[in-house]
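Appendix B. Raw example, untouched.
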Amino acid sequence: MIKIRPFEEADWAATWQIIEPVFRAGETYAFSPDITEEAAHNVWVETPSATFVAAVENNEIVGTYFIKPNQSALGAHVCNCGYVVAENSRGKGVASKMCEHSQREAISQGFRAMQYNLVASTNDGAVRLWKRHGFQVVGTLPKAFRHHQLGFVDAYVMYKQLET
């Protein structure tokens, strides 16, 4: 069973083990593949309004996500999230559970919509998952993502109005 709970600082080592290889790969997130652990902590834990972890038996952390306002002031009613699942836990419903949890959390924080700003068009699994959870591609940004292996690829802006 997957339990999603608020991030605690003691979770950082496990969280870093999950997000570091994803950032280093340069295939799905715009963060530099050379990001330092300190900078990653800042963007994943310190900057967001909340960070969560997905845990299974023995409190093993298998995924994490953050939530934050997508913009300030007049755009602050729309949130943005980032999700990463441990490589050995992919395909087991962790990302889906985190997506569902993040939408409930967003509503509880007063957000009215959720927007993903830069979804690499090559990230087929994420695009399928977000669509299955009601997100729509509302824009295609030609060659806006510099994929570490494939070079410049299109990126999608994906959006969902939340039930409030």
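End of appendix B.
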